[in-house]
Amino acid sequence: MRHGALVDGSERKAAGAATDRARGVLLGTFVGDALGMPFEGVPADEIPQQVEMVEARRGRGTYTDDTQMMIALAESLIARGRVDEQHLARAFQDAYDPDRGYGGGTRRVLELWAAGTPVAAAAAQIFDGEGSRGNGAAMRIAPVAVRFADDPNRLCAEAARSAQLTHAHPVGIDGGVVQAAAIGAALRDESILEVARRAARGAEMTSGLRDVGALLAKPRDPAEVHARLGSSSDARESVCAAIYTAVAHATFEQAVTFAVRIGGDTDTVAAMTGAITGARHGAESIPARWLEALEDGERGRSHVETLATRLR
Known about the structure:
Elements: H1 3-36, H2 65-80, H3 85-95, H4 104-114, H5 136-139, H6 142-147, H7 152-164, H8 170-187, H9 192-199, H10 203-215, H11 222-229, H12 235-248, H13 252-261, H14 266-281, H15 288-293, H16 301-311
Helix pairs in contact: 1-13, 1-14, 1-16, 2-3, 2-16, 7-8, 8-9, 8-12, 8-14, 10-12, 12-13, 12-14, 13-14
């Protein structure tokens, strides 16, 4: 065999692995979202140890605003090549389906845009002018990490630009940046926690990630993680819970199941955990029974897989 043929084969193998991991990020988000959604708000001690896809408000294997906004962000990135705030705002507006379970802050921003408020000004007008410290920017950020994984500085800058569209509070922005950095680190086979720590801009997220490091010293159960980190829609809590869970578990199934069992904002914590773990292990690591359960309409599983391939 010619040396060139060996090189070509090696390059094809590497390209295939990169594509599988990109698919893992987006499908991991989708799977975690769909798996966790039926258990949102359910007391943690009532969540089964073996979590499976069950019937939910829109049916088994359906997604929430987490995946819907992720899809819109991916489509905008592919169209524009970067985070274009005006284009992305329109993509979010066009995709909006209130039945998907949007949070109050995001709904209000969308309403302000529809009423004519400038795109750049709306986020600062909610929650008494402080902006949202929620996890809405982090839950959707996966496509930014896939697109800019090979340029960590730009990855963080584009993640911040995406976050600021709907989140003016520093914690909400920091959550989006840190989650994107964690996914990027997983795609590059770097230390997820160390990269996340370097990306954190504020004291609250830095403190939360320090707690993650302390928890990793020994195995923990979901109740311990909930008590130390929390798992609400606050970005400081849920992003740190997702990073802990992704780092602490060896397989996709173990990680995402644990994320749901923490309780609280189960769909988003599981979606963010799925994105990081999918980046590390690829789409091939996601249980087939979970993938097969995902909705596959116009913007369903097949569309998400196509987006992942195009983002790379």
